[in-house]
């Protein structure tokens, strides 16, 4: 509700005069056509009426804590609940979320994928294709393979973070190995195709290390 207009000088004198006659606050409010709350507040501090400043509701988060929260979330993939635990704050994750959203420098964004092929990359691929256009029996010795990786800790493409507008955007890169993932591989050549192979990525990592050691 909007605040009432302050009492005029004549109204104040009338309230004091009626109050000296032991007239109730309710009856005084009826006589001057004001609310009982206005009359009561005036009679509490008649000499300070109109000069007392309202402090308002105390803020849950001070400026120092706000800066600490924003600095912790800056350019990071972090949950609000983790910020509460990491900073040992006595507030809910919803309060943390409101602080971050009210900031002018943080914005929730999806990480950008690695840059697309450049002109130089395209030229190299086109040159390779032209050089191998005349191949015939040479393709009998070539094996084509492909794989699909499934992450057990969430897909690669859904990585959101609190982007700091004062910093460069984060670029997302997929993980070829690691992260507790499962990978399915298959290949084909001139003579036919292979059966599909399903392995954990940590197994493939150990195999690749063994191959590197053997080659040296």
UniProtKB/TrEMBL annotation:
An MF annotation (GO) of this entry: DNA binding
Domain Tc3 transposase DNA binding, residue spans: 7-51
InterPro entries according to UniProt: Homeodomain-like_sf, RNaseH_sf, Tc3_transposase_DNA-bd_dom, WH-like_DNA-bd_sf
A Pfam family matched in the record: HTH_Tnp_Tc3_1
Gene3D superfamilies: Homeodomain-like (1.10.10.60), Ribonuclease H-like superfamily/Ribonuclease H (3.30.420.10), Winged helix-like DNA-binding domain superfamily/Winged helix DNA-binding domain (1.10.10.10)
Domain of life according to the entry: Eukaryota
Stated name of the protein: Tc3 transposase DNA binding domain-containing protein
